[in-house]
Amino acid sequence: MYLGELLRRHRARQGLSQEELAARASLSVRAIRDLERGRVSAPHARSVHRLASALNLAPAEVDDLLASARPDAAPDSGGSEPPAVQEDRAELSPPLARADRLQLGILGPLTVRVGGAPRDVASTMRRALLGLLALRPHQIVSREEIVDTLWGLQPPRTCHSLIHVYIGQLRTLLEPERARRGQAHTVVLAGGGYRLEVAPDQIDAGGFSERLGRATRARDADELELAWPHYVAALEHWRGPVLADVTTSVRQHPAAVALSQRRVAATLALSDVAARLGRLGQVVPWLRVLARDESLHEGLHARLMLALAASGEQAAALGVYADLRARLGEELGIAPGAELQEPHLSRGEGSGCGP
Fold it and tell me: In this structure, what DSSP letter does residue 213 have?
């Protein structure tokens, strides 16, 4: 199957229009259209990876997409490419960067490794800017959004000049071998803003998403034994709250909040799979860590109580209930809901939180 047909199938499966896929992958609609029509003979692997990331493809699907992008896999277009496709060549085939030497971590404190060596991003503002870009790889972050996130309602008059300086410093940090004034390949100027170009396996959030996708597909197919290790591997990417040591404005960005919610959903799903497999006691560490970060989440605490009880720690389970009931009352003025009360009231019935 050639690239255009495969791409079209994946897009249809996701329910995306060409316009929506183009926006996700930061390509033009014309580029997507010509790819699907088989009018681009040899798109660069970097562009194919960008499309695969936008479509949230599994590794095997990415391999298939890359294989289909080889020149010998494309159908004969019956002539040279049209001028419109030639104009998109730079977009579809950017120069190969040495970004494979870069590794970013945002699922916890911000980490940067270049060539295997840790790099320190000492400046608070540079950390905030890199964190903001890393929350949305392959997507354009406008200068207006950067100003709003870094400075809020009272930006300095020199804010745009400062952004330019910070971008230059980040490029030097992330691409130390780039020639002075040479073309940047990792932090790219695009559409009135900047875009971070990294492959999914260069950022821990990409690894989390890939494993979570596998786990979800296995669970939906009722293959729980297969889903279990993928959920575990997905959650092992987390070292703490998203961008834990970056400014509050970045940690509260909608993209950071959404990523945190995916962590909660993955942990809840792991717990539910564990319950069906008879392994509730094994998920206590994940539930305990996340319950500290999500101190008012009743669903997490209810599952933690059940997991502790399954491990024979009934007193600890009752302590979880008492502590959360007190926090809910003090901070929200409410009592625990049915989801939390059920495991508490079920003690003495063989599966609850008491003797």
Answer: H
* CB-CB contact of 28 with 35 (8 Å): no
**Measured distance CA(90)–CA(107) in Å, rounded:** 33
User: Is the pTM value of this prediction over 0.85?
Assistant: no
CA–CA dist 133, 182 (Å, integer): 21
Instruction: Give the contacts of 300 (CB within 8 A, at least 6 positions apart).
Output: 264, 267, 268, 287, 290, 291, 294
Are residues 58 and 14 in contact, defined by beta-carbon separation less than 8 angstroms? Answer: no
Measured distance CA(132)–CA(16) in Å, rounded: 25
Q: What is the DSSP letter of 203?
A: B
Q: What is the pLDDT of residues 161-199, one digit of tens each?
A: 999 999 999 999 998 877 566 677 899 998 889 999 998
Distance of CA 2 to the CA centre of its chain: 28
Domains and CATH numbers, the chain: 3-92 (1.10.260.40), 99-201 (1.10.10.10), 203-345 (1.25.40.10)
pLDDT digits (tens, 9 = 90+) for 221-272: 999 999 999 999 999 999 999 999 999 999 999 999 999 999 999 999 999 9
